[in-house]
Amino acid sequence: MSVLSKAREFFTTFSSTDADDESGVRNLDEIGSITSRRRAHCLGTVSSIVVQPAGNDPKLDVDLHDGTGRLALVWLGRQSVAGIEPGARLEVEGFVGLLGRKRIMYNPRYAIHGAKDEDQ
Fold first, then answer.
1. Is the pTM of this model over 0.70?
2. How far apart are CA 87 and CA 85, in angstroms?
3. Which residues of the chain fall below pLDDT 50?
4. Helix (H) or strand (E) holding 92
5. Contact at 8 Å (CB) between 42 and 72?
6. Is 26 exposed, middle or buried (0-12, 13-18, 19+ CB in 10 A)?
7. Contacts for 76 with CB less than 8 Å, ≥ 6 apart
8. Which of 12, 37, 100, 118 has its CA 20 to 30 A from that of 71?
């Protein structure tokens, strides 16, 4: 079993826990299967955060992954969002576009489902 397949298995297992079922999270899209110019509803783990310097227009970039792919989340006009930090589990909904081969969602609707280490 390759490292990539082990990572996918880990994140797929992590993203589909009983807690998600109890919270009412349903009809989720796998990030790896999202196509451009359509609405998507995803649940994943924040892997990194980048804040645009204060001298420029404020922008918060967040990478979300679910074991099938990565989705770039961008909040325009923000330098932070309370509760969003690396390792946090995040549910997002919005329209997805492509920038090159990168999936990107601007100003998504979101819900925080806790930190990755919360249950461990």
1. yes
2. 6
3. 14-23, 120
4. strand 88-99
5. no
6. exposed
7. 57, 58, 59, 106, 107
8. 118
